[in-house]
Amino acid sequence: MSAIRHRRHPEAAIQRAVFQHLRARGAPGVFAFHPANGGYRKPVEAAILKGLGVKPGVPDVFAVHNGRCFALELKAEGGRATDKQLACIAALREAGAFTCIAEGVDRALAILEAWGLLRGRAS
Length: 123
What we know:
Elements: H1 2-8, H2 10-25, E1 31-33, H3 43-51, E2 61-65, E3 68-75, H4 83-94, E4 98-103, H5 105-114
Parallel strand pairs: 3-4
Antiparallel strand pairs: 1-2, 2-3
Helix pairs in contact: 1-2
């Protein structure tokens, strides 16, 4: 069953793995979360959320560490960022955040390690 779920939602599987690593090997003081922006919304609910400040294209993983903001968009092998995701990433970078798009779990973990958000190396 889980193999089927991973094939249908490979980015969700990558995200689960990333957060497992953050829980197990996160650097002291890292605050990481996933903004629950995605998914279908009824038009009324979407309008309410937009009015409350929800932005389209927000990356999958946000982390704050030592006063710095990090934003990581996760993609399955061969996946591509949407125009809204690219625009959001550009706006975050312009605001001073560290940003990246990672294709696959190994690349995502390598980026988090390079940013100093994970201790050690993934094996």
